[in-house]
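Worked problem 6 (solution included).
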Amino acid sequence: MSTLTGTALCTPLDHLVGEVRGVVGRRLPARRTADAVGGLLAPVLGEPDLLTDGQRQGDPTRYRQHVLHVEGDGSFSVVALVWLPGQSTAVHDHVSWCTVGVYEGRETETRYRVAGRKGRRRLVEDGGCVNRVGEVSAVAPPGDIHKVANSGTTTAISLHVYGADVLRLGSSIRRTYDHGA
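Solution. The predicted structure is:
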């Protein structure tokens, strides 16, 4: 928060963080928290000056994570992920609930589920979607296995709110999967 002539100015990110703090403090079940945070994230996606030029920079070798906020107690983090055309994640699941909103471009999500009996389990595709600017989705373990890609021809940027301290953990990914197995 910054001040100008004694008046507190709250940036859209500051406002989002404060609102998320309130939801997280209610200690709802993970899926309900993720859905509630989605309602808070959607309006921020239209803020043209939300990210600095540096926070909009990608990496030619892989998608890039810019940490925007980590709550002091580690209960949540806000990050911007920048995807150049063709970049994607591995098939993965998460350490916590996650809410995602597309800020720029579009992202293709492919969802998976585990099928088969013990000893013969495998991943099978279980749907997917293309998320465009302003669209929000939420996931919570278990059942949060997916792959995300920038299938467009321009840079894609998404804002993610995770129920974990991504600075301490390094990422929100719990495990990656070989989707061919």
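Discussion: Residues 98 and 139 are 5 Å apart (CA to CA).
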